[in-house]
Amino acid sequence: MDPARSNARKSGFTFVELMLALALGALVAAILALLIRGLLSAGEGQSARLHGPFAARAAVRTLSREVACAFAPPVEKLAPLTLSVSTEPGKPEVSLSFYAPVPAEPRAIGGYDIERVTYEVGPERGGRRGIQRISVPCSGPGTNAPITNLLFEGRFVLAIEALTNGTARTDWPPPGTEEKPLLPTSLRLSLAVPGEDPLQTEVLIQAATGIRCPIERKTAAPEPAEAPEPAAN
Fold it and tell me: 39 lies in a domain?
């Protein structure tokens, strides 16, 4: 037997080994395809949760919780809540602004600071709108520094109405209000998302609840207390 031919046969692959390698390769490719498909499906699901009806309803719930705590700051002739609608190009379709208490930082000191919170339904772009939250601290650290967050973007219609004395208005304060405007009794929020049941909720504004706002911060450390004088015998 030729030793060279024997060594060549040992260093190559048999037909069975080649078929086994191809089968294993196909199995690995199928497993990778399933993993990639699962990752893409998870990404699409996450995107749907962020931009679909779930995100829209979450944005409305956030608005509801905050506006329930709206209050009137003790400033003369300052409207504690404003609501307006617009059809002008480039302007928000709906704009709602109010004052709300936020826990003071650091939390350990207790008390509350004031923020002016604005919710805007952005103008339509390519059939999509956005619900934007803008908060501007009125006291404490970061005063007058706005913070903007996009809560939801998609196809929806959000209507906000101020309710008082059985009357619903899409603007607030009412025209011709000379004295300091008051807060409406409640707001009615109506959300419509294509393919979903409409959501309508009425939020009672708890303006009668008093809050400690704003807190008083000390800029200097308090002086140490003097030791009491010894009592005379």
Answer: no
